[in-house]
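Supplementary Note 3. Input sequence used for the single-chain structure prediction.
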Amino acid sequence: MRSASAGSIGGVSDSAESTPRRSAAPSAAPSPLARLLAFGSIVLGGAAGGFIGWAFVDLQCTGDCTLAAGGAGLVGAVGAAIGVGIVAVLALRAMSEWGAMAARGVTDEQLRMSKRGDPRAARQSRPPRVR
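The predicted structure, written as discrete structure tokens, is reproduced below.
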């Protein structure tokens, strides 16, 4: 019976030398810059919504309206951030889809034909069958 050495389980080594290297699969995720810009737009939109909510109540209220103005600012910030977040997610998904279509080699003409229901689009986008 063989004894298991350190770094192995059941006699199978987990060293990097015995593990076959796999090539990295292409990612459909948007670039880090696009994600950073989306995050920044959500933060900026939330800040703008908060300021608008606060200003809306502050301008209309007389006396001490600190709590009401702060609450309106919070509601405005959350609402605006959610709205901008939805738009940012849709934009990032569209970028990913466009990138995936470009990687598959789908042309704009093929995309237009497929939207019109033209059967030639399906024939052109599939690779030929080899028997």
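The chain is about 65% helix and 5% strand. The longest helix spans residues 66-104.
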